[in-house]
């Protein structure tokens, strides 16, 4: 097995998720040697750390200012990201295909927005479940209409209250879920050209859940656009929320890993940058469409992961931590 493959497999066990707790290269070399087959020099390992940290698909990332390495957050799903870029540039991808810097800049905004939505969920007692596998590069384009980027789970009791356990179990036995599932589509920029596609993809991807939510980073400043969105919401019950994050504010935000691992005071400062506006409220259905959920189960193994997490949390009477990145 090549050194790079060995490092790719072993590094996640030794790299901290928080960039502020980055591990120095010397210490990482000392630890990683225990997992490697072969006698590699320090210089060879440092070279691989450096090269891999520049690769967005590798597990290792280097802090921007200073020394040390940390674990890279999960990559953005390729299919979903491609559509997001297509939407932002209104289909004129030829305008940027030769400008990798502009593409990277747009990708960073997408990653930051996904991270800030995760952090906002944490602050507001919601539990996000990100779908990634259905949006990988070789996935069918139809998955954009079957799966949301994120499932927002609202539990009736997520604090581990022992008195809530019998009620949660009883509701489960009666076929009444002790949680509410809303399928969310995340988009950076609302526009007249794309809002209908954004809206109906959200509607389609939420048919098996109890509701759907379309979440935009940027504010909706055009009243005609806002009115068009509200009319669709009135007809179909999809909720629409904006976070008030202009391109300039997104650019000023910390890197995604710093957002996800922000301490309480840092989180408070991040939340102050948001101007969350509910353009239209979601209409939540009382029941999950289990037949529709079963129909998409074969299209992604992550549906099974979701069901296992929901089942285990219901049985425990508390929300079991779900190890997830941006």
Task: Describe the model.
With 326 residues, this protein is of the alpha/beta class. The chain folds into 2 domains: 3-71, Arc Repressor Mutant, subunit A; 78-316, no CATH class. The chain is built from 14 helices and 8 strands. The protein has helices at residues 3-10, 25-32, 42-53, 78-88, 100-123, 143-146, 165-173, 195-205, 223-236, 247-252, 256-260, 264-272, 290-297, 301-316; strands at 60-62, 69-71, 127-130, 150-155, 179-187, 211-216, 239-242, 277-280. A 6-stranded mixed β-sheet has the order 3-4-5-6-7-8. A hairpin with a 6-residue loop joins strand 1 (60-62) and strand 2 (69-71). The longest helix has 24 residues, at 100-123. The radius of gyration is 21 Å and the shape is globular. The protein starts with a helix and ends in a 10-residue tail after the last helix. 33% of the residues are buried. The mean pLDDT is 86.
Whole-number mean pLDDT: 86
> How many alpha or pi helices?
14
**Strand residue content:** 5-15%
Number of strands: 8
H/E order of the elements?
A: HHHEEHHEHEHEHEHEHHHEHH
| Measured distance between first and last alpha carbons | 30 Å
Q: Provide the domain count.
A: 2
The best one-word shape is globular
Helix content: 40-55%
Global structural class: alpha/beta
**Poorly predicted sequence stretches spanning 5 or more consecutive residues:** none
- CA-atom Rg in angstroms: 21 Å
Major β-sheet, in short?
Answer: 6 strands, mixed
Strand arrangement, major sheet: 3-4-5-6-7-8
